[in-house]
Amino acid sequence: MTITVALIRSGVTEAGLQDRFLGVIDEPLSSRGETTLIWRASNGIYPGAELVFTSGRSRSLATAQIIYPRIPAIVLRELEPYDYGEFAGRNYRELEEDLEFRRWIANRCPAPAPHGEEPHAFAARCAVAFRQIIREAEGKGLQNVAVITHLSVIQSILRRYHMPRPLYRDWQVGFGGGFITHFDTTTGVLTISEKF
After folding, report:
1. Under DSSP, is residue 34 helix (H, G, I), strand (E, B) or coil?
2. Residue 34, Cβ neighbours under 10 Å: how many?
3. d(CA 76, CA 108)
4. If 0-12 CB within 10 Å is exposed, 13-18 middle and 19+ buried, where does residue 39 land?
5. What is the pLDDT of residues 78-119, one digit of tens each?
6. Neighbouring C-beta atoms of residue 67, cutoff 10 Å
């Protein structure tokens, strides 16, 4: 069985407009974020879905409501964004002289940010969320699912399930953008068919 999974990044917030690491900080969509999502949804950018999953962050919940207003979103705690710890709420410009941040970035973030989430634990909970989403769709015999979450979660899911492994730059997607993917329940492999 193949399940189509739309992995959609939440719309933009004020912090997002300033390129800040938001992570678990709960910030609502900006007015620009709402307007952009409404326009994109009304122009058929987003695929149809029979089930919708989201994190509990207000920006994700609002994004789900705008894109899929007739489908009640199922909130999964495991879809919460990466916790950037002391780096949360700040951007590269504010952190570029911070020695801990420079070490963290130079090492490609294999260790947690100070007081942040351990990367392996984050990857494990994203995998748990994805497996739960697939089980739910399979159990109901549904083939079209939308997941409204955060860039860190989308990247973690792709890193874990996509074959061949995508290049890091290929995992980048703008606010309110995403990927249409197909998960083969027999092989356990996820493939990307479209980026939007």
Report:
1. helix
2. 17
3. 27
4. exposed
5. 999 999 999 999 999 999 999 889 888 887 666 788 999 999
6. 25
C-alpha distances out from residue 4 to 15, 146, 177, 180, 196, Å: 31, 8, 16, 7, 15
Enumerate domains of the chain plus CATH numbers.
2-195 (3.40.50.1240)
pLDDT tens figures, 141-190 = 999 999 999 999 999 999 999 987 766 667 889 999 999 999 999 999 99
Positive or negative CA dihedral for 79, 48, 28, 154? positive
For 23-108, list the strands marked E by DSSP.
51-54, 74-75
Alpha-carbon distances of 183 from 49, 101, 126, rounded to whole Å: 15, 35, 15
Q: State pLDDT tens for residues 26-52.
A: 999 999 999 999 999 999 999 999 999
Retrieve residue 120's tokens.
């392996």
Closest CA to 81 of 126, 114, 51: 126
pTM of structure: 0.94
Task: At 31, list the tokens.
Answer: 């007015």
For residue 158 the two structure tokens come to: 């792709």
